Structure formats: structure tokens, C-alpha cells
């Protein structure tokens, strides 16, 4: 392991999980960490998310070989400026943000003399904060690394090896392509989930109690991702605006077509659309990105074992 | 138990689960069943979904005290007509369909001399067919019963007791209100999920392989419900058209507002919307309609136990 000391800035779901994963899978490495919220620092120390919780970001990075920013996309630039003076020249800078072009630019501008290789582990839960992390978050998940055009190949391979050690499969792509892929696989689903949960809260004819009670009909699947961290998601949409708006336009066109099919009673169009979406589900399960058990083991466990 | 013999017409996820649940929770009752698909009848017999798989619907209902139609909403009327001549006068007729006004009308017209009390267990998985059912599907789920204005209260209470015996909590409401509630908690989520999975399949710049690979970012949550039975869902949208279109209109307005917030960079609107949706998620978990474990126990089990 080439990174002897790893500094984690931001000790929420992602930062906490990285700290715990390093302890489990790379026990020879030392971790330091910082979070802007004093209560989160205290809790991070209690949970031992990192070996040393520091009182400033500068202190956390002073001996680091790798710094990973795990703060919301909109806070990356400011967080990077706070460590500039303290950062050793050789230290590799990375992050876990869900948009890559904007973050690459913000980190690059704040740390012009350092190598920045952004990354994005496509793994998460709806929980956030210092209690949310766990060591196995990245296992069998993809981590997308988006190196700049000119990159030290040795550093790149070290970063790839780091994520592989934490259990992730690594893929390399350009920041622009990452942002387009994630707009459809992550950002648009979150936007839609946030919307429908909001819509359901505001109805006059159906109470919120009824929405909650009968959520097992499908709605509850949306509430999980609509419970994700609001600050982070606000920043994701603002930092990946163009790709999100492009995908949203496509979605709206498709929804309008289905709306028309319902209105005019076009049974064939509905059936055809509902048939072809099944194949994608099968592929996701085959590739190990989801679980085929009914309700993913929700509810009682006998039910989960006995489909 | 007042229903000595229960006939189940349609042996898919719902019908099969009812048959298995009756054997487990009401072992003194006898079950008969029929499915229009001969291969499904054969498989139903192998799995012993009901005590006797019959070669016609008429034969299945001839000695029944309760008949439950578990066919797609659009097939209810035809299925009911097929049993009219064979149905004993005292037999109570019910169903499990996801829309209630249209089905009540179809069953009432086909069986004018019988008492019809429609019902809808709000429980399911994305699987369908004779292999999909399991005995515990209805446990701790809600079953909505929508009796007609003039109803035999004894029969109603027997139907309620039947569903409670299978583990469900029963709620009584009008068919019209049911259809409005389910439009938002089930039908709209399914429509949106089908749409986004279709949108993601048709992109030029992002391959289907990439969509599958990075689905853990949120997209996979939508694919589960978009893998539901196409025939049933086509019929649900056509039979609950007005309520679905009303809810869809509300959703589209809300989505447009968020789209504008992203376009103009209105961070406060995004943050406020994303904050208030968290509370609903908490309520759903508190009321036992979902599981708070990260990923609902998806992926490896150590991760699920160790959030």
C-alpha cells in the first residue's frame, strides 16, 4: 500500500465508510479526518471512523499521502482552499462527489500545484452523517475514476488499487461522460423521487397518513432515495445542471407519450413499454447490482427466503 | 372459519399467495383454483398453490363459499361471466385488483344476482406467474375492502376476518377514494418507473450496459417496480385512468417547478424540497411498511447488519 497516511475531509456516509473500510482492508494505513461540524467530529471520534480526528482540515492533511474530499459538491472548492497551505507537494488529491466536471474544476483551481484525480464510488444509502458509514459500503460496487488528460500513471494506478482494496470495481472515464451517465442512473432518479414524494405530501384528497399506510404499493421505493442528504443533492443538481436538464427533457417526452396512451386508451403502447423494461431489471440482478429476493428481504425474513 | 371452500381464479402472484396463505393460516379450509394458462395450471398443481387445480373456472367455483378473482383488471368481467352459471347463490365474490370502481362495475354487471365485495391487498413483488406466490405476502400489509352501499354486514365481516387471518390489516373505504389513494401510492410510481427505465434504455450517449452497471446510484430502485407484470399494469392504468391522469398532472407541475429551480440555480428551493421529503420516509419505516436497513439488506448481509 503506497498511501501510508490517508486524510478524509468530511466524515459523513462516504467519508466514514472510507475510514472504516481502510481500517478493515488496509490495516497498515493510517487515517486522519476532519469534519466542519464539531458534533460530527465528536461522533466520528466515538465511532473511530478514522484513527485521528483533527481540529482543522489543515492539520488532517499535513502528513497525508492521499486526501479524499467527502463533502457536498458545492463545498469542494472552499474545503480545498482551506488545506492548500498545509498540503505536502507529493500528496494526491481525490474526492467522492457525484458530479465530476464541476468538481475537477473547483479542486484544480483551489490546488493548482497538486495532482487531482477525481473519483466517484457509485455506492450509498439514504442515510447521512457520522453514524451512516460502514466498512462494506463499496464492496461489489463500481468506482468511477476520472483522471485529467495529463496524469501521472503511477499515481492513477495507486488510486485504482486503493479503491480495489476497499472492494470496489474501478472504471476509468472522462468527467463529461461520467456526468452524463450519472445524470440518468442517479441524478434523474433522485429528482423524480424527490418530486413524487413532494407531490404525495401536498394532496388535498388523500392524506399523508394514507400515503404512508399504503406505500407498499410502490411509493415506498421512491421514499428511500428521497430521504438522501438534501445539501449534497442540492449541490449535485446545481453542479451537473446541463446533463440533468438534458435527461429530464428526455424523460418528460417519454412520460408525455405514456400519458397520451392512457388518455386515449392505447393498450398496445402501454403493454409494449411495460414489457421491454423487464429485461433491464434481469440484467441488473445478473450483474450483482441488486437482489432478486422479493422486497430485497424487506419485512419478515421467512417471506424473503420463500418466494 | 365460515368459508369452507375458497375458489381462486387466476394463480399468479396474488392467487398463488392466497392459496398458500390459506393452507398455512386457515388449514381447515379447502381451496380450488383455475388459471386460463394450462402451463400455469400445471405449475400451480406442482407447487400445490391450491388443494385442487380445476380444468375450468366453472368447476373451480361449483362448491365455493368465496370466490376471489386474481386476474388482471381488464379480464375481471370475462372471468366472472365464465362462472355465472356454476356459481352457488350464497357464494361471496371478491377480487384483489388494484383499481376498484371499474372492477366493482365489471363484476357487478357479470354477476348481478351475487354479492360482490371487492378488495385490494396492497402487497406485491415485481414477480408474477405461478412461481411468484408465497404464504407470507400479506403479513403486516394493508388490505383495502370496498363494499357496495348495500352490503350484508355479516358477509363483509367474514371477508374482513378472512384477510386478517392471512395476516393483513383491513381498511374499509369507498371504491372512488381507493382509486385516488392508489393512484398516488402505487399507480403513479409505477408509471414513472416504467417511464424512466424506458428513457434510460433509449439513450444514444449512454449505453444500456452503463445504465445497468451504475444502477446502484438510484436507478435500480425504479427497475424493481418497472419489472412488474405488463398485462396487469396496462389494465390498471386503463381502468383507473382519471385518477392516474389527475395525479400525473400534479406530479408534472411539481417536476416543472424543480426543473426551473435547477435551471435558474435556485438553491433554496431545491434544499427546501429535499428536506421535507425525509419526514415521510421516517413515518413509513415507523409504521412497519419498509425496512430501515441500508439497501434493505441488499448486497452482502454483513453490510446490512452494520450500518
TrEMBL record, chains A, B:
EC number: 1.3.1.12
GO molecular function term, any single one: prephenate dehydrogenase (NADP+) activity
Biased composition (Basic and acidic residues): 290-307
Organism placement in taxonomy: Bacteria, Pseudomonadati, Pseudomonadota, Alphaproteobacteria, Sphingomonadales
InterPro entries the record matches: 6-PGluconate_DH-like_C_sf, NAD(P)-bd_dom_sf, PDH_C, PDH_N, Preph/Arog_dehydrog, Prephen_DH
Domain Prephenate/arogenate dehydrogenase: 4-292
Reactions catalysed: prephenate + NAD(+) = 3-(4-hydroxyphenyl)pyruvate + CO2 + NADH
Family: Belongs to the prephenate/arogenate dehydrogenase family.
Keywords, in A-Z order: Amino-acid biosynthesis, Aromatic amino acid biosynthesis, NAD, Oxidoreductase, Tyrosine biosynthesis
Name this protein carries in UniProt: prephenate dehydrogenase
PANTHER family per the UniProt record, alphabetical: PREPHENATE DEHYDROGENASE, PREPHENATE DEHYDROGENASE [NADP(+)]
The organism of origin for this protein: Novosphingobium silvae
Entry superkingdom: Bacteria
Pathways involved: Amino-acid biosynthesis; L-tyrosine biosynthesis; (4-hydroxyphenyl)pyruvate from prephenate (NAD(+) route): step 1/1
Stretches for region Disordered: 285-307
UniProt record, GO biological process: tyrosine biosynthetic process
Amino acid at each position: 500500500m503506497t498511501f501510508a497516511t490517508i486524510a478524509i475531509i468530511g466524515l459523513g456516509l462516504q467519508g466514514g465508510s472510507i475510514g472504516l473500510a481502510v481500517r478493515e482492508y488496509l490495516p497498515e494505513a493510517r487515517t486522519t479526518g476532519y469534519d466542519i461540524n464539531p458534533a460530527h467530529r465528536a461522533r466520528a471520534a466515538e465511532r473511530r471512523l478514522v484513527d485521528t480526528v483533527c481540529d482543522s482540515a489543515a492539520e488532517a492533511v499535513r502528513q497525508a499521502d492521499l486526501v479524499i474530499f467527502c463533502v457536498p459538491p458545492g463545498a469542494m472548492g472552499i474545503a480545498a482552499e482551506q488545506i492548500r497551505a498545509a498540503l505536502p507537494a507529493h500528496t494526491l488529491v481525490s474526492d467522492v462527489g457525484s458530479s465530476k466536471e464541476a468538481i475537477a474544476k473547483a479542486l484544480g483551481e483551489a490546488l493548482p500545484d497538486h495532482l487531482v484525480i477525481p473519483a466517484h464510488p457509485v455506492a450509498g444509502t439514504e442515510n447521512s452523517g457520522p453514524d451512516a458509514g460502514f466498512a462494506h459500503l463499496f464492496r461489489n460496487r463500481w468506482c468511477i475514476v476520472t483522471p485529467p488528460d495529463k496524469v501521472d500513471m503511477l499515481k492513477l494506478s495507486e488510486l485504482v488499487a486503493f479503491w480495489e482494496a476497499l472492494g470496489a470495481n474501478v472504471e476509468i472515464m472522462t468527467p463529461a461522460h461520467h456526468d452524463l451517465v450519472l445524470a440518468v442512473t442517479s441524478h434523474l432518479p433522485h429528482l423524480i423521487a424527490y418530486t413524487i414524494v413532494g407531490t404525495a405530501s401536498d394532496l388535498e384528497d388523500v392524506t399523508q397518513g394514507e400515503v404512508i399506510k399504503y406505500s407498499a404499493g410502490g411509493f415506498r421505493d421512491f421514499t428511500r432515495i428521497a430521504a438522501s442528504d438534501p445539501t449534497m443533492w442540492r449541490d449535485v443538481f446545481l453542479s451537473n445542471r446541463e446533463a440533468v436538464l438534458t435527461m429530464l427533457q428526455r424523460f418528460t417526452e417519454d412520460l408525455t407519450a405514456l400519458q397520451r396512451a392512457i388518455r386515449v386508451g392505447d393498450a398496445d403502447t402501454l403493454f409494449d413499454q411495460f414489457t421491454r423494461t423487464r429485461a433491464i431489471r434481469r440484467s441488473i440482478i445478473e450483474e450483482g447490482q441488486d437482489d432478486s429476493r422479493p422486497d430485497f428481504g424487506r419485512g419478515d425474513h421467512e417471506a424473503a427466503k420463500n418466494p
